[in-house]
Amino acid sequence: THTHTQTCPRPGKQPVTCEFIMAEEDDPVVAELNVYLATSLSESLHLFQFPLRPANKPYFFSDDVVSARMKPKHKLMELRGELDLDSPNYDPNIGEMLAKRANAKSAEGAAPPMFPKDAVDSFVLHAATAPLSSQCAVGVMCDGELHLTAIAAAQQFRPSLDYLDEADRRARSADKPSAAARDDSDEEDEEAVVVTVKFKRKETDKAIAAKKKSHATMKKQMEEEQWLKMDYYHSTDEVSRHTKSRLYCVRPDGRIPLAANPAAFVRAFTDCSIGVDAGAGDDMPTRIAAIMRQAQLLTAAELVDIILSPSASAAQAQSVVTVLARISVCMDGLWFIRSEDLYDVAAAKGPLKAHMQLLVRARNIILVLFRHGLRVRRSDVHAVCGLSHDELMLILKPIATRTPGHGWRPRKVHVDPSELRSLDSLSESHWALLEKECASALSAITARQSAPTPTHPAAPAAGVAAAAA
Question: 125: number of CA atoms within 13 Å, CB side?
Answer without folding.
Answer: 24
